[in-house]
Design brief:
seven-stranded mixed sheet, disordered N terminus, 25% strand, 601 residues, alpha+beta, binds fe (ii) ion, Purple Acid Phosphatase, chain A, domain 2
Length: 601
């Protein structure tokens, strides 16, 4: 193929930078280096893409390292489009990020880096399309706990013939370490897979080491090398159940919350191929949009550190009231009002001591209802809700056919699913007996809380006012909103409806790459039918498959293939298509009802 004028100009600039040998003049690095964390690209636009690598200096780290980059039309780098030089240092953990501009829309490129005479692996990337677009194919992934499995799903993504981009919805890394007592290490010890550092990540050095550990994984490297990624974080990229002012898994003994948050955010920006935030925007606000020509706008949402309100905490007396019940007649528990008995029993319960017979403590359901229903509570934060509303309107006004919202926590209502009833008394006792002791108090609550209350407090069900505002926003957008969610470690195909039962959006929840679902934690129970059977918004749910979703978007419909891995406990696996669904458009051009395309056996 003939080079066009712009390509020739790019090559000429490159020729000035590189000597005849191809090694840049003045970069005779005596320093030995390697590219052991691979390469990556991300945040593609129609004319540019972020290129990423990390240089590992061997021995004493130098003050700085000069790194060359080049992006070409071919993997042999005979048709180089752009070249450049950049510096990195310990201040950026020797990571390299380049915004390679001047590219053509909807075009595949190869890229690589060079430091001294060491050349990196070659990556493939692709710019976004403009104008009319026939289709876009994206893999949607989330939740890769290093210890609970091999990254077979990432390897599978790397092997896809057709792939335009990868969307990662968070929990790319987890804070838990590789010591035997850390979450997931019961499996990690069995399969010989432990993340470093061994302890929970708290400091900048910890988070950097955690990313380096993950990015040493060859399957993850291969998936990054395959296509550009668009990534948002979720809680575990900092720590479990975080919100603006703290996290369930952050204790005062671990230092200040602000320091920990800043450390995790800095490491994320160093190691993830994300464009730096625009000037004046808070560093934690990684919400951003991508245009797929006239086909769609992708709106990526931040749901933790910009404006999320604290999760309701059952142990927090300012959130809920605990009732003390006299269980002398087990079928007729009597409410205890004596302050002295209440004090003794509640003190025992809240300090983890056995509750004296014949008493039992239970959360007062009405107080919990009140706590979660406060109208000002928000998942995204009010400023981001407003921003999302504006982005939806802008996209629809520009004639984009789809509005794809990159979300984290599954939005569909899952209240009404009675796990205790579903399992039956025997199944419930079995599940209770085999879960980790940390999960038992939570399971106990499940047993006693009425079904209209959420079974966990980090999800949208525990922020009903925020969900109502979302419904109104989605309904009034006039577009075709589709919410893509992660976090739950299960597959979901949902139709989101407002209080009047009108469909306002479709939702696809993607399963985890490796992390265990609630069904796994309860001893390998398939809870999917419970949710699809009792929650009107849930069309399909499946808890026991690890994998990812493959989304194919066309002007007329969206196809979703739920891709499963036969195992993540060993590196050999078979891929299978668990289910395929199609989301058509109705006569008015709005989203229709999901169609199950899965062939019947
Ligand atoms: Fe997760």
């Amino acid at each position: 193929m003939k080079l066009d004028r712009r390509e020739v100009m790019g090559a000429a600039v490159g020729a000035m930078l590189l000597g005849a040998s191809g090694v840049p003049a003045g970069a005779k690095a005596a320093q030995k280096v390697s590219f052991r964390h691979g390469i990556a690209s991300g945040d593609p636009l129609h004319d540019r893409v972020i290129l990423w690598t990390r240089v590992t200096p061997e021995g004493d780290p130098p003050q700085s390292l000069q790194v060359e980059w080049e992006i070409a039309k071919d993997a042999d780098f005979r048709r180089v489009i752009r070249r450049g030089t950049t510096l990195t240092s310990g201040a950026a953990d020797f990571t390299v990020k380049v915004d390679a501009a001047g590219l053509k829309p909807d075009t595949e490129y190869a890229y690589r880096f060079r430091c001294g005479d060491v050349v990196s692996p070659v990556g493939r990337t692709k710019t976004l399309p403009v104008g009319n677009v026939d289709n876009v194919v994206m893999a949607v992934a989330s939740c890769s706990l290093f210890s609970t499995g091999f990254f077979n799903a990432y390897r599978d993504i790397a092997s896809l013939d057709r792939l335009d981009l990868v969307m990662h919805l968070g929990d790319y890394t987890y804070e838990y370490g590789g010591a035997p007592d850390q979450l997931g290490m019961s499996i990690g010890q069995q399969i010989g897979r432990a993340p470093t550092p061994a302890h929970e990540a708290v400091t900048l050095a910890d988070y950097r080491e955690r990313y380096a550990c993950y990015r040493s994984d060859e399957d993850l490297q291969a998936a990054h090398a395959r296509a550009p990624w668009i990534v948002v974080w979720d809680d575990h990229d900092t720590t479990n159940d975080d919100w603006v002012g703290g996290a369930q898994n952050h204790q005062p003994s671990e230092g200040s919350w602000e320091d920990r948050k800043a450390a995790s955010v800095q490491a994320f920006f160093e190691w993830i191929p994300i464009r730096p935030p625009e000037a004046g925007k808070p560093r934690v606000d990684i919400s951003r949009t991508f245009e797929l020509g006239n086909l769609a706008t992708i709106i990526m949402m931040e749901n933790r550190l910009v404006g999320r309100d604290r999760q309701v905490d059952l142990r927090n007396p300012t959130d809920v009231t605990w009732n003390v019940l006299d269980m002398t007649g087990p079928d007729q528990p009597a409410l205890v009002t004596d302050p002295a008995i209440r004090k003794d029993v509640l003190t025992a319960a809240l300090t983890g001591k056995p509750v004296p017979a014949p008493y039992e403590v239970r959360v007062d359901p009405e107080s919990l209802r009140k706590a979660i229903s406060r109208p000002d509570r928000s998942v995204y934060g009010h400023s981001l809700e407003e921003w999302l509303s504006g982005q939806l309107r802008t996209s629809v006004a520009a004639g984009k056919k789809w509005q794809i919202i990159g979300n984290q926590v599954v939005m569909a209502r899952t209240t009404g699913a009675d796990i205790v009833d579903f399992l039956g008394p025997e199944g419930w006792q079995k599940a209770y007996a085999q879960v980790t002791p940390q999960l038992r108090p939570w399971l106990k609550q499940l047993e006693t809380l009425p079904d209209d209350l959420p079974f966990e407090f980090d999800g949208w069900d525990a922020y009903p006012a925020a969900r109502s505002r979302m419904d109104a926003m989605l309904a009034s957008s006039g577009g075709r909103p589709v919410v893509l969610s992660g976090d739950s470690h299960a597959f979901w195909v949902n139709s989101l409806t407002d209080a009047q039962g009108r469909q306002v959006a479709a939702e696809v929840g993607t399963t985890s790459i490796t992390s265990s679902s609630l069904g796994n934690m309860l001893g390998g129970l398939e809870l999917g039918p419970l949710f699809s059977g009792s929650c009107p918004e849930v069309r399909f749910c499946q808890h026991l498959t690890r994998g990812y979703s493959l989304v194919t978007l066309t002007p007329d419909d969206m196809r979703v293939d739920l891709i499963g891995m036969s195992t993540v406990l060993q590196r050999d696996y078979q891929r299978f298509v668990l289910k395929s669904f199609r989301l058509p458009t109705d006569a008015e051009g709005h989203i229709g009802q999901w169609e199950d395309l899965t062939p019947t056996a």
